[in-house]
Design brief:
about 250 residues, alpha+beta, OB fold (Dihydrolipoamide Acetyltransferase, E2P), Trna Endonuclease, Chain: A, domain 1, 6-stranded mixed β-sheet
Length: about 250
């Protein structure tokens, strides 16, 4: 298949998915676009209806396999006084399948799913607190129930998939390693702690630390597990552009 035909096919897929998922998401219209250039970690130059424009990338990960020149992406219109980027880049595609790239989305999805009792691994907590500090880290969730130890949860948004395996991270992360070290120390002191890998796509069957890229992260993960930290993972379900927490995935250590 030539580049022109492939681009037309991907563009048709974007339009179909928008039709399935609805044109509006959280008070913003969804717009298909083409990636032209990643100007820096948080800004992309995109083509919308034949015109160049800027879009904010809500994810500092490299995502080279997703955000390359010519890649089809989906934006959300994002107005606001003083805003320099009129769009937010929310979805990319790999092998014709959508990938949610907003790194803030997993925390909200997980907090809501836990409150609804949908995450069996973390069931039975009466209070779900967004963000909590312990040691040198600030964690995504603190779960409380007076009848059992508090639970610190760090959620890792995973976008990189090779074959059927999801890998984290996609770039070396000192901050991510520090989170794991503090979760291990908190476990030593009696907290329940968990690293939760949420794969923001449907095509992964397993999650692994990306030892070839960041071996120190993998070492920290295995050390924290030895201290009592739990490791959990789930995929996401994408129906059109509606994202939900999906099924549990095994984690290889």
């Amino acid at each position: 298949m030539g580049k022109t035909a492939r681009r037309q096919g991907e563009g048709s897929l974007v339009l179909l998915l928008i039709k399935q998922g609805g044109m509006n998401m959280e008070n913003g219209k969804l717009v298909p676009a083409r990636m032209l250039e990643r100007k820096n970690r948080f800004v992309a130059l995109v083509e919308v209806d034949g015109r160049e424009n800027l879009a904010h990338i809500p994810n500092s990960g490299r995502m080279k396999e997703l955000l390359f020149p010519g890649a089809q992406v989906v934006l959300r219109e994002a107005g606001g006084k003083g805003r320099k980027t009129p769009y937010e880049l929310l979805f990319a595609f790999q092998n014709g399948k959508p990938v949610a790239i907003d790194s803030q989305l997993p925390n909200r999805l997980m907090a809501e799913a836990i409150k609804r009792g949908e995450i069996q691994e973390l069931a039975g907590y009466e209070k779900v607190q967004r963000e909590a500090s312990w040691g040198h880290s600030r964690f995504d969730l603190l779960l409380k129930n007076g009848e059992k130890p508090d639970c610190l949860v760090e959620i890792k948004s995973v976008n990189l998939v090779k074959g059927e395996t999801a890998f984290f991270p996609d770039a070396p992360t000192i901050r991510g390693r520090r989170h794991l070290e503090d979760l291990g120390r908190a476990a030593q002191e009696g907290f329940r702690t968990a690293a939760f890998f949420l794969v923001m796509r449907e095509d992964a069957h397993m999650v692994c630390p990306n030892d070839s890229l960041d071996p120190e992260f993998g070492q920290a993960l295995r050390w924290a597990v030895e201290q009592g930290m739990e490791v959990m993972a789930r995929s996401c379900r994408l129906r059109g552009f509606q994202v939900q927490v999906g099924d549990p995935l095994p984690v290889c250590l």
